[in-house]
Amino acid sequence: MFGIADYGAFVAAIILFLAIPGPGNLALITSTSKGGIAGGLAATLGVIAGDQVLLWAAVAGVAALLAAWPPAFHAVQWVGAAYLAWLGLRMLTAKPGDAPVLNIQPRHYFRQAGLITLLNPKAIVFYMAFFPLFVDPARHQGLLTFGVMALTIAALTFAYGLVVVLLTHFLAERLRTLPMLTRALEKFAGLCLLGFGLRLVISR
Protein backbone atom coordinates (compact mmCIF):
# COMPACT_ATOMS: atom_id res chain seq x y z
CA MET A 1 0.00 0.00 0.00
CA PHE A 2 1.44 3.35 -1.15
CA GLY A 3 4.78 1.61 -1.67
CA ILE A 4 4.95 0.37 1.93
CA ALA A 5 5.92 -3.27 2.26
CA ASP A 6 3.75 -5.08 4.86
CA TYR A 7 1.86 -2.10 6.27
CA GLY A 8 0.51 -4.22 9.14
CA ALA A 9 4.01 -5.10 10.30
CA PHE A 10 5.00 -1.42 10.01
CA VAL A 11 2.12 -0.42 12.30
CA ALA A 12 2.94 -3.19 14.78
CA ALA A 13 6.60 -2.14 14.88
CA ILE A 14 5.71 1.50 15.57
CA ILE A 15 3.35 0.52 18.42
CA LEU A 16 6.10 -1.65 19.91
CA PHE A 17 8.65 1.16 19.76
CA LEU A 18 6.17 3.62 21.29
CA ALA A 19 5.68 1.32 24.27
CA ILE A 20 9.41 1.07 25.03
CA PRO A 21 10.16 3.20 28.12
CA GLY A 22 12.09 6.34 27.27
CA PRO A 23 12.23 10.12 27.70
CA GLY A 24 9.15 10.65 25.54
CA ASN A 25 6.96 8.39 27.66
CA LEU A 26 8.30 10.00 30.81
CA ALA A 27 7.48 13.47 29.41
CA LEU A 28 3.88 12.39 28.78
CA ILE A 29 3.45 10.94 32.26
CA THR A 30 5.09 13.87 34.06
CA SER A 31 3.21 16.48 32.02
CA THR A 32 -0.13 14.79 32.73
CA SER A 33 0.55 14.44 36.45
CA LYS A 34 1.40 18.17 36.62
CA GLY A 35 -0.91 19.72 34.05
CA GLY A 36 -3.78 17.28 33.75
CA ILE A 37 -5.20 16.08 30.45
CA ALA A 38 -4.47 19.42 28.73
CA GLY A 39 -0.81 19.25 29.74
CA GLY A 40 -0.53 15.60 28.69
CA LEU A 41 -2.11 16.20 25.29
CA ALA A 42 0.13 19.23 24.74
CA ALA A 43 3.15 17.04 25.53
CA THR A 44 1.83 14.39 23.12
CA LEU A 45 1.65 16.99 20.35
CA GLY A 46 5.17 18.10 21.28
CA VAL A 47 6.46 14.54 20.90
CA ILE A 48 4.67 14.24 17.54
CA ALA A 49 6.12 17.55 16.32
CA GLY A 50 9.64 16.58 17.39
CA ASP A 51 9.27 13.17 15.78
CA GLN A 52 8.10 14.65 12.50
CA VAL A 53 11.07 17.02 12.35
CA LEU A 54 13.51 14.15 12.99
CA LEU A 55 11.66 11.87 10.59
CA TRP A 56 11.82 14.30 7.68
CA ALA A 57 15.37 15.23 8.57
CA ALA A 58 16.22 11.54 8.22
CA VAL A 59 14.45 11.41 4.87
CA ALA A 60 16.44 14.43 3.73
CA GLY A 61 19.66 12.65 4.60
CA VAL A 62 20.63 14.45 7.78
CA ALA A 63 21.64 11.10 9.27
CA ALA A 64 24.21 10.71 6.52
CA LEU A 65 25.59 14.16 7.32
CA LEU A 66 25.86 13.33 11.02
CA ALA A 67 27.56 10.04 10.19
CA ALA A 68 30.01 11.80 7.89
CA TRP A 69 30.80 14.48 10.48
CA PRO A 70 30.88 12.77 13.92
CA PRO A 71 31.54 16.01 15.84
CA ALA A 72 28.11 17.31 14.80
CA PHE A 73 26.43 14.13 15.99
CA HIS A 74 28.30 14.19 19.29
CA ALA A 75 27.55 17.88 19.84
CA VAL A 76 23.81 17.35 19.50
CA GLN A 77 24.12 14.24 21.65
CA TRP A 78 25.80 16.19 24.45
CA VAL A 79 23.19 18.96 24.26
CA GLY A 80 20.40 16.40 24.49
CA ALA A 81 22.06 14.62 27.40
CA ALA A 82 22.61 17.91 29.24
CA TYR A 83 18.98 18.96 28.79
CA LEU A 84 17.61 15.65 30.09
CA ALA A 85 20.06 15.68 33.02
CA TRP A 86 19.10 19.30 33.83
CA LEU A 87 15.40 18.42 33.97
CA GLY A 88 16.17 15.34 36.06
CA LEU A 89 18.31 17.23 38.57
CA ARG A 90 15.66 19.93 38.96
CA MET A 91 13.06 17.29 39.76
CA LEU A 92 15.40 15.51 42.19
CA THR A 93 16.25 18.69 44.10
CA ALA A 94 12.74 20.18 44.12
CA LYS A 95 11.25 20.70 47.58
CA PRO A 96 7.59 20.52 48.62
CA GLY A 97 5.90 23.77 47.67
CA ASP A 98 8.38 24.62 44.90
CA ALA A 99 7.04 25.58 41.50
CA PRO A 100 6.72 22.50 39.27
CA VAL A 101 9.70 21.75 37.02
CA LEU A 102 7.35 21.38 34.06
CA ASN A 103 5.20 24.50 33.77
CA ILE A 104 1.41 24.42 33.98
CA GLN A 105 0.73 26.17 30.65
CA PRO A 106 0.08 23.57 27.91
CA ARG A 107 2.33 25.45 25.49
CA HIS A 108 5.25 24.83 27.85
CA TYR A 109 4.50 21.12 27.99
CA PHE A 110 4.49 21.11 24.19
CA ARG A 111 7.88 22.82 24.13
CA GLN A 112 9.43 20.59 26.80
CA ALA A 113 8.29 17.35 25.16
CA GLY A 114 9.30 18.61 21.72
CA LEU A 115 12.80 19.51 22.94
CA ILE A 116 13.23 16.15 24.68
CA THR A 117 12.37 14.45 21.38
CA LEU A 118 14.44 16.73 19.15
CA LEU A 119 17.56 16.52 21.30
CA ASN A 120 17.92 12.80 20.74
CA PRO A 121 20.02 12.61 17.55
CA LYS A 122 19.89 8.82 17.58
CA ALA A 123 16.24 9.08 16.56
CA ILE A 124 17.34 10.43 13.17
CA VAL A 125 19.64 7.44 12.65
CA PHE A 126 16.86 5.13 13.82
CA TYR A 127 14.44 6.47 11.22
CA MET A 128 17.13 6.27 8.56
CA ALA A 129 17.67 2.60 9.36
CA PHE A 130 14.00 1.79 10.03
CA PHE A 131 12.32 3.18 6.92
CA PRO A 132 14.16 1.06 4.34
CA LEU A 133 12.86 -2.09 6.04
CA PHE A 134 9.31 -1.21 4.99
CA VAL A 135 9.83 0.49 1.65
CA ASP A 136 8.96 -1.62 -1.40
CA PRO A 137 11.52 -0.61 -4.09
CA ALA A 138 9.23 -1.85 -6.87
CA ARG A 139 6.22 0.23 -5.75
CA HIS A 140 7.91 3.12 -3.98
CA GLN A 141 6.15 6.42 -4.73
CA GLY A 142 8.70 8.89 -3.39
CA LEU A 143 7.38 11.53 -1.01
CA LEU A 144 3.91 9.96 -1.00
CA THR A 145 5.29 6.76 0.53
CA PHE A 146 7.23 8.64 3.20
CA GLY A 147 4.26 10.94 3.77
CA VAL A 148 1.94 8.03 4.49
CA MET A 149 4.54 6.55 6.84
CA ALA A 150 4.93 9.89 8.64
CA LEU A 151 1.16 10.34 8.95
CA THR A 152 0.81 6.80 10.30
CA ILE A 153 3.49 7.44 12.92
CA ALA A 154 1.81 10.71 13.96
CA ALA A 155 -1.64 9.07 14.25
CA LEU A 156 -0.32 6.10 16.24
CA THR A 157 1.68 8.40 18.52
CA PHE A 158 -1.40 10.51 19.22
CA ALA A 159 -3.54 7.44 19.96
CA TYR A 160 -0.85 5.98 22.20
CA GLY A 161 -0.32 9.32 23.93
CA LEU A 162 -4.05 9.70 24.55
CA VAL A 163 -4.18 6.31 26.27
CA VAL A 164 -1.14 7.12 28.42
CA VAL A 165 -2.53 10.55 29.31
CA LEU A 166 -5.96 9.22 30.34
CA LEU A 167 -4.46 6.38 32.39
CA THR A 168 -2.00 8.74 34.08
CA HIS A 169 -4.73 11.29 34.82
CA PHE A 170 -6.95 8.59 36.31
CA LEU A 171 -4.14 7.43 38.60
CA ALA A 172 -2.99 10.97 39.39
CA GLU A 173 -6.40 11.83 40.84
CA ARG A 174 -5.89 9.09 43.40
CA LEU A 175 -2.24 9.87 44.00
CA ARG A 176 -3.10 13.44 45.03
CA THR A 177 -4.44 12.02 48.28
CA LEU A 178 -0.99 10.50 48.92
CA PRO A 179 1.46 13.45 48.75
CA MET A 180 4.46 11.43 50.00
CA LEU A 181 3.98 8.85 47.26
CA THR A 182 3.53 11.63 44.71
CA ARG A 183 6.85 13.23 45.73
CA ALA A 184 8.56 9.83 45.61
CA LEU A 185 7.29 9.24 42.07
CA GLU A 186 8.47 12.72 41.03
CA LYS A 187 11.95 11.95 42.39
CA PHE A 188 11.90 8.64 40.53
CA ALA A 189 10.92 10.44 37.31
CA GLY A 190 13.81 12.87 37.84
CA LEU A 191 16.21 9.98 38.40
CA CYS A 192 14.98 8.35 35.18
CA LEU A 193 15.51 11.56 33.19
CA LEU A 194 19.01 11.88 34.63
CA GLY A 195 19.64 8.24 33.70
CA PHE A 196 18.39 8.77 30.14
CA GLY A 197 20.75 11.71 29.78
CA LEU A 198 23.74 9.70 31.03
CA ARG A 199 22.85 6.73 28.83
CA LEU A 200 22.69 9.00 25.79
CA VAL A 201 26.33 9.91 26.37
CA ILE A 202 27.69 6.55 27.58
CA SER A 203 26.17 4.55 24.71
CA ARG A 204 27.56 6.77 21.93
Topology (SSEs and partners):
Elements: H1 7-19, H2 23-59, H3 62-68, H4 70-93, H5 106-118, H6 122-130, H7 143-175, H8 179-202
Task: Walk me through the structure.
The chain is mainly α. The chain has one domain. Helices cover 78% and strands 0% of the residues. The protein is built from eight helices and no strands. Helix 2 crosses helix 5, helix 2 runs antiparallel to helix 7 and helix 4 runs antiparallel to helix 8.
Shape: globular
* Beta-strand residue percentage: under 5%
Helical stretch tally: 8
Mean pLDDT level: 75
Approximately how much helix is present in the residues?
over 70%
Brief account:
This protein is mainly α.
Key terms:
mainly alpha, 0% strand, 204 residues, single chain
